[in-house]
Design brief:
alpha/beta, two-stranded parallel ribbon, globular, 9 helices
Length: about 270
């Protein structure tokens, strides 16, 4: 009886281990398909930027990327938008419209693999794309008037760019301490940080930044929990400000309230004044 009991238990444990390994292998092999969810926008149409310009960026590894640009009015700041992991720039109208109404400049660009652009998204690749956008915009706008605006995944790109090309200020919507921390939150049973190829370790970088930083987060965010944004905020240097939006989650952040918080913060910091 004892031997017949151990054998089924052994097979059960072996099955559990095999399933665990298969899940880990699956996530390792397909992690970039899970992280990056590109959308495809209409080439040349300024859906998010009425009366904007179509720009073609060239990365240092030879890719051509689509971008849209609308200059600022009345010496107001220009926002360089590093968008999140899903969709494309044609879907960011909700985010940038309040800024356009109030005369801000806006520069939107799509990463490699997004919006019909060539290439496949990776952490290193997105940094190259961000560098191309920064280099172009700095030819059109004085650095003291450029604000980096990172959205979700794009906050990691914005922080990296701020290290090498400091803007006048940094605005982070739904930020995270590292992508590994986000993965560990969703898959606590796996050694996510060991499996991840793209890490976006913003918390290790933000301590080296000495520019005004505004972070905004939804208190009910279940995709990038606010506690990961708060962890990044604690690590940041002054001047900094945390803005929590109660009840809101990851994909329903209030665009007008975010604009009001951003506008107030940038004015208090004297950006582009």
């Amino acid at each position: 009886m004892q031997g017949s009991f151990k054998w089924p238990m052994g097979r059960l444990l072996l099955s559990i281990v095999l399933i665990y390994v298969l899940v880990a292998v699956f996530l390792y092999l397909f992690q970039r398909q899970i992280i990056y969810r590109p959308g495809y926008g209409p080439t040349g149409d300024h859906w998010a930027l009425p009366k904007g310009e179509t720009i073609t960026l060239t990365t240092n590894d030879g890719l051509s990327l689509q971008a849209w640009y609308r200059p600022a009015q009345r010496n107001l700041p220009t926002l360089l938008i590093f968008h999140g992991n899903a969709g494309a720039i044609n879907l960011r109208s909700y985010l940038v419209t309040p800024y356009l109404i109030h005369g801000y400049g806006v520069f939107l660009f799509d990463y490699r693999g997004y919006g019909g652009n060539p290439g496949k998204p990776t952490e290193t690749g997105l940094y190259k794309d961000g560098e191309a956008a920064v280099n172009y915009l700095r030819q059109r706008v004085k650095p003291r008037c450029i604000v980096y605006y990172g959205e979700s995944l794009g906050t990691g790109v914005a922080v990296e760019m701020a290290l090498h090309y400091p803007p006048a200020a940094l605005v982070l919507q739904s930020p995270y301490s590292s992508l590994g921390d986000v993965g560990s939150y969703h898959y606590p049973f796996l050694p996510v940080k060991l499996l991840m190829k793209d890490k976006y370790t913003s918390i290790e970088k933000i301590t080296r930044l000495h520019i005004p930083v505004l972070m905004m987060h939804g208190s009910s965010d279940t995709i990038v929990p606010a506690k990961l944004g708060e962890r990044l905020f604690v690590a940041a240097n002054q001047p900094k400000q945390w803005q929590s939006f109660e009840v809101h989650g990851h994909n329903d952040m209030p665009s007008m309230q975010m604009f009001q918080a951003t506008d107030k913060f940038l004015r208090e910091q004297g950006v582009c004044q």
